[in-house]
Amino acid sequence: MTTSVRVPRPASVPRTELHVDPRFLPLADRFFAMYRQPQHGGGALTAYFRGEKVLDIWAGWADRDRRWDRDTVALSFSTGKGVASTVVHRLAERRLIDYDAPVARYWPEFGAAGKDDITVRELLTHRAGLHKVRGLMRSPLDLLDYDAVVQALAATPADPRRLRGPGYHAVTYGWLVAELIARVTGKSFVQAVQDEIAGPLGVDDFWYQVPGQHRPRIAKLFPHINPAGLNWELTSNVLSLVGPTRGLAEAAMPQGFDVLVRNPAVHDAVMPGWNGVFSARALARMYGAIANGGRLDGHRFLRKATIAQMSQVQTHDRDYVLGIRPQWSLGYHRPILASREQPRNAIGHYGVGGSGAYADLDSGLSLGFVTNRLGSSLTALGDFRLARLGVEAQAIVRNGK
């Protein structure tokens, strides 16, 4: 049984309807407590359980003078990697892509500079050795030129550390996967996302190039993304010179990126590693299908065998960019919960600032969370909001069995 909570509104205000299954009220309470003041910003949380939408809520402020509403969407950074990866798996299921084939089979130019033997599987698990975005292009605005970036990546030699383990392709992953998809389908990446994700799921909010009529829906991000409020250029330069942090600076801190993030032109470009704009509803629906054995509303989105392949951990090695062992599967990581007990069979992708989504394949639970308040009071790079929401959701599911 579910309860729909209708909020009274003037006729001029868009329809607003919160959806709360009574079992998930504790999760809703925890979410609403996060957005009590304008300085907390706003956000949205949607959950599916065994193919049924059990939570669809939002709260807070999309901007200083605008409340978050049902139609608000947010730039969600690396959350978009999971969506892009899912397109690959839809194609692999139809045998249009072979995980163990060289990327150069589909994208011949990729084979330049000794990269002819790098496979799709290695690309999806951050073992292509192309993590470096810092210095890839001459200026920050050049990162908006999809064709130029793709050509530069194809011509770049792979980092030899890839042979020892993964190196998180924090920004470049999106371009690499997008071009692979474009070469295989003969379509633009944006069109492929519409055909393979948005269309089959019946929801449009999977944007990498945001149509003009939808841009007023985008929540304004704050504060600045600079680590600890420090100067971006100075910080990135220093980190790039220090051994333990060099890989992170190379992969995630290109010159001028802090300014580029706030440039409206990012919504015209295709940069799937970080510029995806989503609703929590869309993300939870995609992962809800994955968590429910590939089916949603009586329609098959993915086969169980495909989900089994895409969720299998591919590497337990230390990531030379992140300095940890993320246990990458094919385009996803394990969701991180603020608990000693972590889901054993789950996939998803979180983004800088706090947004993210995942599917728990054992329980049938999926969560999608987007927010415009980047991180915590300590750093804009991330926090534990989704990790804590995940703990609450898992407890509800576990206790309800």
From TrEMBL:
Keyword match Translocase: no
UniProt KW keywords: Hydrolase
Short name of any one Pfam family annotated for the protein: Beta-lactamase
Keyword field contains Hydrolase: yes
Top-level enzyme category: hydrolase
EC number: 3.1.1.103
Residue span, Beta-lactamase-related domain: 37-389
Gene Ontology terms, MF aspect: hydrolase activity
Gene3D superfamilies referenced in this protein's UniProt entry, alphabetically: DD-peptidase/beta-lactamase superfamily (3.40.710.10)
Domain of life: Bacteria
Protein name in the entry: Serine hydrolase domain-containing protein
Lineage: Bacteria, Bacillati, Actinomycetota, Actinomycetes, Mycobacteriales
